[in-house]
Amino acid sequence: MLQNVPQGFVGYLCLFRTVVPKSPNLLCRKSSFFFFFFFLDQHGSVLLCFENSQAPQKSCFTRHRCCLLGYKRVDSRTIYVGNRPCPATETFIPPKFCDNRIVSSKYTIWNFLPKNLFEQFRRIANFYFLIIFLVQVIVDTPTSPVTSGLPLFFVITVTAIKQGYEDWLRHKADSEVNKYPVRVLEDGQPARKDSEKIKVGDIVEVVEDETFPCDLILLQSSRDDDTCFVTTASLDGESNHKTHYTVPDMEKDLQSLSATIECEQPQPDLYKYALISLTSLGPENLLLKGATLKNTKKIYGVAVYTGMETKMALNYQGKSQKRSAVEKSINAFLLVYLCILISKAVVCTTLKYVWQSQDGQDEPWYNQKTEKEKGTILYVKMFTDFLSFMVLFNFIIPVSMYVTVEMQKFLGSFFITWDRDFFDPEIEEGALVNTSDLNEELGQVEYVFTDKTGTLTQNNMEFIECCIDGFQYTAFSSELDSFCVTDGPVSTFQEKEELFLRALCLCHTVQVKEAGPDELGGDQVDGPASEPLRPAEQRGFIASSPDEVALVKGAMRYGFTFLGLESKTMKIKNWQNDVEEYELLHVLNFDPVRRRMSVIVRSKSGDTLLFCKGADSSIFPRVRPEEVERIRMHVQRSATEGYRTLCVAYKRLSVDEYAAADAGLREARLALQDREEKLMAVYNQVETAMSLIGATAVEDRLQEEAAQTMEALQGAGMKVWVLTGDKMETAKSTCYACRLFRRSTELLELTVRTLESGGRRREEMLHDLLFDFHRKAVQDRACFVRSWSSANPEYGFIVDGAALALVMNPSPDTNCSRYRSLFLQICQNCTAVLCCRMAPLQKAQIVKMVKNSKGSPITLSIGDGANDVSMILEAHVGIGVKGKEGRQAVRNSDYAIPKLKHLRKLLLAHGHLYYIRIAHLVQYFFYKNLCFILPQFLYQFFCGCSQQPLYDAAYLTMYNICFTSMPILAYSLLEQQIAIEVLLDNATLYRDIAKNAMLRWGPFLYWTVLAVFQGLIFFFGVKYLFSNPALQDNGQVFGNWSYGTIVFTVLVFTVTLKLALDTRHWTWINHFVIWGSLAFYVVFSFFWGGIIWPFLKQQRLYFVFFNMLSSVSAWLVIILLIVLSLLPDILLGVLRKPRGPHTQQVARLLARPSPCLYIAAPPPTHPPPFFFYTVRFFPSPIAARSVLPY
Asked: How far apart are the first and last CA of the chain?
């Protein structure tokens, strides 16, 4: 019956009475009739719509989508406005939707303990020591379970407290959002509730300057024209004002409103929204969560998406456990040491049974086996012995290293917070550390992904100059009321000049807002005005684009003032103070494909004019060619100077031309299908055969030191990518201003415009462009490198969101992986990459693609809005800027800084030093533990592999916890091998530590060989001492515990003094912990061996330490072995010649005058604990300033 039926209206069925509704909108007036419509949509589904009620002044319009004749049902949701109960005739059961809670935390009270323990025991060392502890509990081992259990418990507890505290801060931030009070209409009455309690269908009230708590359909506005203005800076990075419209023919009495909405299921695209209705409603009716209401006193909207189903939440990349490259290196080194441990246990187990296989060795007369031992199976006994050796040698795995690393990261993060260079007096805040686990990653960044609006720029545009009819005009001085002409005659206003200024005053979407006494001269886009305005001009401006405000202000400076829009009438005051009125007929909005916008106005004289402004590439083909040449040179010059350029044109429309354009626009705007395509066709038809008037140059002010920061990052070897939701022209101008693109840079553009320029399918153009760009940027560039040519070309790559979608998700008949590979290679071979019109999830896709590429480069993302949260979470390191777009980015970032310029010091200074410190910490821990356990392994060859410990249990437990932990912790917090000023002045020093240079296998092998050398010296040096049978004055000999104590004493002094030799930046803290640790070891040994402890069953070291120090030979051997062990380091330090900036720094320090005393303290605004104050000697005040952080 419904076959071959055209799309649109099919028919109707009326029950009881037949009527025609007054409005076919989503929400229409209610009558007392029961009426059905049948419509056929673009999916081939029949829309069944009925209207029913018994109350004459209420509205209830419900639609059902029926599956007739095999047509497929479209996934949608039905929402009951006001959550009113549906009528008895309604067949839908209201579905359940998620609440409005936002969750960014990782743990809850109930899952913290199991989840945190699971994450911690995923670490190899923690899991290994847990197994060792269980073995010690179950199996009879030579050491007490306390030796493994106590350090493990300490590590797990400290780490859990640290991570629990950080997650508590996230819970606190979530609570501030979820508990924010909002106003809703419940049962027709206003009520207040927490934001988290908003339900789908609630009618929410929002007042000016408040953010929308969920995604809303705009029902009612306090403005007379049923519009409201919104800023979406926290969503797409654009701080300009956007106009949104209420539902057409909407009832004013919302308290008695009864209606339903059927719309699509939640999806993350910020720029698309499909409302399944009989009227054309779209994104202009949807208010997104996170956006802010501006220039509108109050609005009412119905909640359609809440909580984690809002578009902002769907663009939120879930939190994942970020692991630094240092932690991955630690795990790799642990595997090596675990193999060494297993090898030692296997060797000792084998040698034990080889030795016992000899006659008389298995069961000597003094050590007879028990009946239980005789009945034990041989293989079980061998496995038990293997586990015993594993326990005996388990200290080669440094479990305490993890707690030291955690403490180093936690305490080290305070130095970022205390750095007064990060303090911003405007917001009176400094840097913030949300996650201290990634401090060292700041020194390993290879790719920087940055937002544009609010991060690179202030979004504060200023009119610089213009070109009219080929003559260039710059900004005038305050004494003149006319243009200052730089290459043309100085005269009063001519016809072209007046027409140009009228175009600037009329061709825009600017709204005038009368300013209060505290806002005189300010506007909602451009920030505070640069100069006070005259009393008649004490008004602010809001607009859909920030450059529109700059252009209107520029025209105001030259005598043409825009007075506002009232009832479709635009008023301007000309330079003769006469008020001109124009009827606004149509606005042809800007879009990224056309790259222009137009208005059609009618003057008092009856002339119909079209004014158009846009990019030069969009305007030039639509004007007369002879007019282009006079303007092109000025446009190109302004663009190369980093200004944003726009061309201005106009056209007089005849009565017939306007009538055709008006009919076409109205028909296209009422179209249910392909509305955008139809509007585009009408726009292109009317914007032809125009006359070119001139061009403008507007400067988008950069953040302070933005260009210098980008240059420093590139000099450090980092590649900078700009990911923005803004338009391409604006973003490209910003890249030129930041010196990411230079005059010599050849730009490769992969955008919708280039894909549609060839007149072929997008997929075909994409294929050709990718291969062409790959040939230029990759293949030809490689040829230049191989030929050692000095003319190595530089390429910049520009891609927009639509083109990226084709690359990431091409059609099924194309090779997806091939396109991605070509795209990535092109990007990696360009000096800078610009990605514009990016949705938040696309930003995260870009970061993920680079992060997972060959070599796994370290990535950093920086942004200031909620639209940047996804890429901040996806990158290895996320930086939030404390800008004007809310604090979503700051809450979800790893680090937060007030301004972009602080990124330079954060990476080049703090990141560099953090990486060097923790890399030395890791290598040192493996080194000192190998020194510690190697003599224990060698001792087994002289005790019949009997599992006899060389060291006392107290020494085994306290070696890593007390005797050697504090010096390396102080070193890892305070060491500065290179002064901060030198690091900031020489960005190339950052490259010396790139790609995890200090934790590669080469340095690891050096530390391992050094540990083996010193371990051999310790053991065999003391063995040579014991070749003398009488070492004491009374003729008594030393026993095995004396042997182990001497080895342990040499060990503790050697590894501690080794760290002292490596220290370049001495403070009183370093002196205290290094010499204090050695003194503590001596004092502890005296007390441990000099007192009979009642809780010990056996006291192996009773008076052993006293007897050892009473021997002159022992003193001599200890000193000689320490010097011999440290000799390679001493010789290496003397013979090695310093190179590069290190040499210059040392030379400057040596040439300084007599030393003086300085006290280094953190800034008074953030006073630290007392022990962070340091007293140091410096050659001069300049040396002190170059080294001291404060």
From this structure: 84
